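Incident review: delayed structure delivery

Summary: a single-chain prediction request sat in the queue longer than the usual turnaround. Root cause was a stuck worker, restarted by the on-call engineer. No data loss occurred. The affected request and its eventual output are reproduced below so the record is complete for anyone auditing the incident later.

Affected input:
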Amino acid sequence: MSKALYLLLLTSLILSGCQIKKPQDTNQVACTAEAKVCADGTTVGRVGPNCEFALCPDENNTSLYQILNANSISNISPKFSFKSQIPKDWQAEAVTSIGAINIFDPRADGKNNLEKSQIFIRFFDATSFLTLSTVTIYNKENTTINDRPAVVYNIEKKSNIANFANQPLWRSQRHIVTDIRTTDLNLTTFYVIAKNPNLNQEIYDNFLNNLILTNDLTSLVEPVAEFKKRITKKPFGIFITPQDSPVQPEKFTGYHNGVDIEYQDSITEVPIYAIADGTVVYASTASGYGGVVSIQHQINGQNYMAIYGHLNPASLIKNNSTVKAGQKIGILGEGFSNETDEERKHLHFSLRLGNNLNLAGYVKNKIDLDNWVDPLLLYQN
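Output delivered after worker restart:
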């Protein structure tokens, strides 16, 4: 090709708006066009260097989070006695100089763990909610966190006050703090749970929604023998449809608000026990359960409505009875009979926050699970 012809062709390409593209990186991985159907009907494709499926909007929290037991943190103040959930790759440490807990993301930017802090927790003992004179309060909202009184503050350190020592720098900037009253005693401990301004709100809300105060958990009794070992098919929060349920045939659809403890292999009588002291508010039959008992429990000042489902109606404890922890309240019903409303032999056990009776075993929307607590959180060591 002559030089003149080449220049003419190049000029023509430029005038027509075309661009000469660089060769593509031949090392780039091309993922296949497969799609995964999520429980809510949406689809996700393969992404990233390993072509793994992206997470569904309703991905089970158990794949993303780990249990944080405050009592297991080295050198922690005995004032902290709770469990909750944090992202699986996060860590927690005691800040012994001020009696605090620093929850941090090791992957975050920063030279030390305080600079990587995402949630910072302190405490104070008082008879009522307190606020420091060293901060400006932009907003204050009274609320409840898992049936405990709480106040959410939007605060910022006053400009004439030095930065707070032994705390993350963001604690001296504008951020959200949630104070929680841990008991109903006149003089009690309050937790102060501060949020890094850059932290995803969903992670912070998940921490608060799964917060369990554990001062009294040593007194809890498992509702049935081999409780944790036999939760093999339907854990808390799993999304169920008749098409993909681990139990077949299946007649329910929704997010499971309890745990199922399987006893199909047992031909002997299986006793069911009250997990704590309480009052029986319902002991009868109900659609989807056969025999069912609901007991109002109070654990460390928090009210829970427990459901013990699929019991033999003839074995149920009397309604309005007062029960003690470990007291027998019935036995499992015979599988695939009227005793279990034609369900397999198993215990459906759930814990709903508050005092309201709700016999539902599933909820339609994932956000509604916030009204229930994963029972395993109360029994984690």
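Verification: Helices lie at 3-15, 201-209, 376-379.
Action items: add queue-age alerting; document worker restart procedure.
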